[in-house]
Amino acid sequence: GSDLASLKTRAVRDGDDYIVNGQKTWTTMAQHADWIFCLVRTDPNAPKRQAGISFLLIDMKTPGVTVRPIKLIDGGYEVNEVWFEDVRVPAENLVGEENAGWGYAKFLLGNERTGVTRVGASKVRLARAKELAAQTRIGDGTLLEDPLFAARLAELENELVALELTQLRVVAGSADGKPNPASSLLKLRGSELQQAATEILMDVAGPDSLPFEAGDIASPSWAGRSAPTYLNYRKVSIYSGSSEVQRTIIASSILGL
After folding, report:
1. Which residue, 116, 250, 92, is CA-closest to 181?
2. For 7-27, what is the mean pLDDT?
3. I need a labelling partner for 115 at 20 to 30 A (CA). Which of 58, 216, 238, 240 fits?
4. What CATH code is assigned to 4-99?
């Protein structure tokens, strides 16, 4: 997903079917899926890497499809490797035109990157951090009254307001159905702020963030979840195109560098 132009999964036409061979890593919730959409290389001799890619719909129950779990650093299981070994897919499952998948993917990724900005979720986390910080005693006052913590929280709140306004402008400017490269700005900054929101909650929890499913050790449940959530959210700057990929898009498509 981070470098679509380099994909190697191939689909070779065989009569009324395509035969698919390859692998996809980090497929979220594949263990529950009935169908998967795949971008596959149908013309390996295309003059540009972005050309020769097609968009196929594949039934997960098709022989040759194998789902292998990937255990995450937080102990959870939500992503997978999906392997395709001589998977026969009806040609009628082709979306749009053959070798035109790059354009469809760019449009979908633009919508996805706008969605995974998750301004609302980050606002909820920051509000929760403020609430909990007001209940956390340090010295003669509370953590929320600490100038350094209060300034850090205020900066994140301001950043989220700016991001929300940018998101509204991008959505309003995407009514023509064309990909908007500004979605990369949303994805990049949204990822950073999601990670910052999980980090500040873990900092509010302090040592109570460490005992997770630790038996009789007394620790508030929200605090015990804060460290696994922080670790899990390292992923957000990778999926839907890594932060490095977003910076490249911003440089070329927005700044014209």
Report:
1. 250
2. 94
3. 58
4. 2.40.110.10
pLDDT computed for residue 119 by the predictor: 94
What's the whole-model pTM score?
A: 0.79
CATH 2.40.110.10 range(s) for the chain read 4-99
What's the CATH architecture for 104-254? Up-down Bundle (1.20)
**pLDDT at residue 105, as a whole number:** 85
Determine the length of the chain: 257
**pLDDT of 110 above 80:** no
Mean pLDDT of the chain: 90
pLDDT category of residue 179 using cuts at 50, 70 and 90 = low
In the residue annotation, 213 being an active-site residue is answered as: no
Instruction: Please identify which of the residues 81, 112, 157, 164 carries the catalytic annotation.
Output: 112
3-state secondary structure the chain: CCCHHHCCCEEEEECCEEEEEEEEECCCCHHHCCEEEEEEECCCCCCCCCCCEEEEEEECCCCCEEEEEECCCCCCCCEEEEEEEEEEEEHHHECCCCCEHHHHHHHHHHHHHHHCCCHHHHHHHHHHHHHHHHHCEECCEEHHHCHHHHHHHHHHHHHHHHHHHHHHHHHHCCCCCCCCCCHHHHHHHHHHHHHHHHHHHHHHHHHHHCCCCCCCCCCCHHHHHHHHHHHHHHHHHCCCCCHHHHHHHHHHHHCCC
pLDDT, tens only, 194-245: 999 999 999 999 989 887 666 666 778 899 889 989 999 998 988 888 888 8
